[in-house]
Amino acid sequence: MRSLVVVAGNTFRETIRDKILYNLVLFAILLIGASVLLGTLTIGEQSRIVNDLGLAAINLVAVIIAIFVGIGLVTKEIERRTIYTILARPITRVQFILGKYLGLGFIVVVNIAIMFAMFLATIWLSGNAIHGSLFQAVELILVETLLVMAIALFFSTFSSSILSATMTLGLYVIGHLTSDLKGIAEKSQNQLTEAVLTALYYVCPNLELLNVKGQAASGVLVEMGYQVTATAYGLLYAGLLLTGACLIFQRRDF
Amino acid sequence: MDAIVVDRLTKTYKPAWPWEKPVTVLSNVSLSVTQGEIFGFLGHNGAGKTTTMKILLGLLRSTSGRVELLGSLADNVAVRSRIGYLPESPYFYDYLTAEEFLCFYGKLAGLARETIQKRIAELLERVSLTEARHMQLRKFSKGMLQRIGLAQALVHDPELVILDEPMSGLDPIGRKEVRDIILGLRDQGKTVFFSTHIISDVEMICDRVGILARGKMLALGRIEDLVKKHAVRSVEIVCDGVVSSDLPDVKRLATRVLQRGDRCLIILPGQNHLEQVLAVLRQAGGNLVSVIPHKDSLEDIFLEQTNRKV
Fold first, then answer.
1. Would you call A16 an interface residue with chain B, using a CB distance cutoff of 8 Å?
2. Which residue of A has its CA nearest to B96?
């Protein structure tokens, strides 16, 4: 357990010293600030525009961090050969993978918290109401980010940085289009196409389940049952991917 | 007890495609390293030294064979708290300072904070990096990185130290410093297993040596024994007061005869006809200056083994 925390702590320190992180967070904060200006151009929809843009900025930056820092978690260690001295210590490969995930997870939580705090401050300063639904949306953004991180980590245990980034991005896009996959499968005349698309629908993560931004921006609360189920779904999927990542990583030669 | 036991170790890489052949990089390699000794693992680049070390540390899985470290099987994670490792051409987390770097590895080894702080000061002093304590590793030179790498291998005071090419990239002073550290470790009763392709490093500090080439162990033993096993390669005789043209028998037996004024240099291909040649020289009234038998050095043995036997 101690080794896991040491690896997590080092991952946190590594990411926090990366300037890209600051640029991304700054970008999100600027975007949130800009949403107020955009809101003033609309009549009666200012609150919705600010909420929409703010949540979108938080989501975008969190997912970018998850993908681009997430794929480097393991691939960078292998490519730079820093993994040799780590795994030569009394630490299991599972502890290493979970430590890496935990370290970045903590970064993501801190970043989302900072961006969300700036977002709430912007809403408050612009004189709009802070709805409870915004908290629900951000909680699901965090779950989605943790899931995307697990996808990135999973791919990076057996492929290069570029391939991992491509596959994670691909799965992220498909993850937001799974309902379309099902729709196309149902309309398909070809049995094989239908089978493939249906399989994809069930295998790929349904990230749209974690997207309640539209509803939240309008100030409509999400049902608690849905919130809990969606959170459990995202975390369970991330858990499965992490298990897969550990199993693959344990069999790898360095 | 042996610190390292490697028994008929084989590593074969499966081909990526069905039409490719499997590649065997280690073939039935066996060796043992006694506790408290310095063992030199000698071989050309690509001989299989790093592969062997990686299998010892669980970074690679063997195809067959048995590997034991300090009485435990190599895949036992717990035993690694008693082992220090420096990889070849190490690259470390360059965003860390020397102190943070050693602290990280100390924590990974399970050391207490106070012990780590004490060890960091000792080790930085030992590898002459005290001044660079708060410097980020990205500003380190290659030699400094090698030395801080050595310090991370020793931070938890391990019983067994495995070093992959520890002298590579170092200047003569740096090499001497590393040699002194290795000798110091032996004085403390530690076992050192290190690989190199530089023979002088091995000759200077190793108790025993193993020669590996193309994945096969060609020779194993004490340097003196390995050298002794080999017969005298040539005998050099220097004699005054004789003229080589008057000595046709000697010319016939020698591989080379050189006349420099009154002095004659005769090189014989071994000891077989030494007495016969000496008798001829005495009979001719020669004044014997020196008789020097030349034995194979470790370098000769290494070159002969690696070039001919594989």
1. no
2. A14
